[in-house]
């Protein structure tokens, strides 16, 4: 094992960089949402009404819409066919709220059209969750037992989390693309409001990019920390 401790070593700068990137992305999406949450849509529809209109317009009749607690906790569950809108989105008539609601509808459209990256992400979720849980224990046990196989398995397990983040990117960007197209074609937002919604959705997408970069930096740190030990074994 390297001469410095696992939790106190120069490579920890990679984790710090990842945290800073994630924090910056989170701050940006929150500030962007707040800015355009103060802009009332000209057509005065709520996030819930927008979602219901989009689902009907896209002939999706098997998806429910419900409100959930929290701020920007909006999500679409393909398993339960339920679109959940947070308090900041459901009853708000802001451009930001309508954009977020439309984005989640974009996932429902992906589901209805069997969009492959969405299916792939759903298939990866359980494996990625298990991988992220057992990766560090496998690596540490491998170091203690001087077992390169366990170290390699641990690194592979952790890399599954990064693969999940990569697969998530096209899913999220495509959902936003679909959302903006639907908003424009359906007339829910005006030509002046569409660029505002685009800024909100772009800011939200950047949080997924930041998560992928952060995970990659953590994986790189593990390779640096334990790669030499692995080769010596």
From TrEMBL:
InterPro entries in the cross-refs: Zn_peptidase_2 (IPR007395)
Membrane-spanning segments: 12-33, 123-143, 149-169, 205-227
Keyword Membrane carried by entry: yes
The entry's keywords: Membrane, Transmembrane, Transmembrane helix
Keyword NADP among UniProt keywords: no
Name of the protein in question: Peptidase
Organism, as annotated: Candidatus Enterococcus willemsii
Organism lineage: Bacteria, Bacillati, Bacillota, Bacilli, Lactobacillales
